[in-house]
Structure formats: C-alpha cells, structure tokens
Design goal:
Blueprint (H helix, E strand, L loop, with lengths): L8 H12 L2 H8 L9 E5 L2 E3 L2 E2 L11 E4 L4 E6 L2 E5 L4 E4 L12 E12 L4 E5 L3 E15 L2 E15 L5 E6 L3 E10 L2 E6 L6 H10 L10
Parallel strand pairs: 8-9
Antiparallel strand pairs: 1-5, 2-3, 2-4, 4-7, 5-6, 6-8, 7-8, 8-10, 9-10, 10-11, 11-12, 11-13, 13-14
Helix pairs in contact: 2-3
Amino acid sequence: MRMRNAFPGHLCSRRRDLLLAGSVAGFAIAFPQLATAGKLLGVASEVYVNGKRAYRGTTIRPGDIVKTGGLSEAVFVVGKDAFMLRENSQMRLLKGTAANRSVAPGLRVVTGALLSVFGPGTRTLSTATATAGVRGTGVYIEVNPSSTYFCTCYGTVDLGDSSGADNREVSATHHNAHIVHAQAQGGSLFESAPVRDHYDEELQLLESLVGRKPPFMQG
C-alpha cells in the first residue's frame, strides 16, 4: 500500500529512493538491528538530543528530548520500540521505571510528526489534544495547534482527547486514521480521516530494526 507523502523534496526523494530501490532489507543493513538499541541510527540534517547536536551513534534513553530541524529526520531505537521523527518535530520519551530503565513507558509528541512501532507492553502516548494507550502497535502521529492526526497502522489503541471527554478503542489490521480535535467539530471531537504521509515500507523498516515484521506481512 502506498500513501501520499507531503514531505519536502529532498527528504521525500531520499526516502523514495532508499525504500523503492530494493531496499527495506538493504536499509536495515545500514542500521544494524538490536545491538544498537538505544542509539540514533539514521540522521538527515539537524537532529538534537536534550538540546545538543546529535549524530549517528548518539545514545538516546528514556527521559530524553529529541528534536529535528527543517529538512531533517531521525531514526532510532529505544528498547523494543523504533521511531522515525519527521522534520521540525520534537518528542519527549518518558523516563523508565525503577524496574526497567531501558524501556520508555510512553512519550509526548510536542510538535511535528512521528512514525513509531512498539513492542509488547503498554505505552502511553500524548499530544496537546490527544492521549493513547498502545500495545504492540504501529502508529503515525501529526500534531497541529488545534488537533492531532492519529493513524493506528495496526494493532489496538485506546484513543481519547486530552480532556478525557471522549475515549474509544480503535483497532486496525492495515491503517485506521482519525483526527482528534481540541474543540468539537460537528458535535464530535473525533473525525475519521484518510491515510496520509507515511509508507508501509517505513513500517517494515522500523520493525526490522527491532527484529520484527508488521502484522500485514505475516501469514
């Protein structure tokens, strides 16, 4: 399944060349699996971790803040979770628990967009307008001042608005997207939305970095 991508030219072309030229598997070779968990694996242009310029190999831990500049992108793994942070974006990983400091129990997307895949166990995701509980799920999130675009790429998500006024379970085998508004639109905070701005090949890439395949590739 291919989806419209609205990224600036050089990132869009770079991603298309890498993914379509044969190479989710080749791309995964460039980003070694598992052994580099907790590291920044891929960098395009400006990436910052806790306010300091980051480069391939920079360590990323639960509790860290990751930020990208214009025409930038970051790919990294923390525990059994893998992330692709788009340009002009910022996210904060929640600190790990005393029992397991290597796994972030959740994250907050502050600005921009994030594609991510999660291993077993519950994670809590939040933006200014939405909250979500995910379990072994793939999701794509775009944050806007008055709304959040949230695609459940596969798995089950407990999705709600940030005030707790409306919550619902969303399941998908191959993409189920919604917009969660800060203020009701047409009597509802939720709006069904088309799938946009992320590729199945990107999900394959992220899952490969943690030794898995997306459910839509299995069986």
